[in-house]
Amino acid sequence: MEACKRCGRKLKTPKSIEVGYGASCKQKHDEEEAEFLKRQITIYEELAFQEMVGQC
Ligand SMILES: [Zn+2]
Q1: Residue 22: is it exposed, middle or buried by C-beta count within 10 angstroms (0-12/13-18/19+)?
Q2: What's the pTM value of the predicted model, to 2 decimals?
């Protein structure tokens, strides 16, 4: 039986099993991932700025 990777509850639908998350957990996971990617861009921009300024 497949379980949700986020909350560990059993997955009922083939779609949930396919993605590995329940419907609501998939949504939260996607939101977190989007937030994470946004932060990554910010970090790269920060590094680029530091390089430009020439100090750590
Ligand atoms: Zn879940």
Answers
A1: buried
A2: 0.63
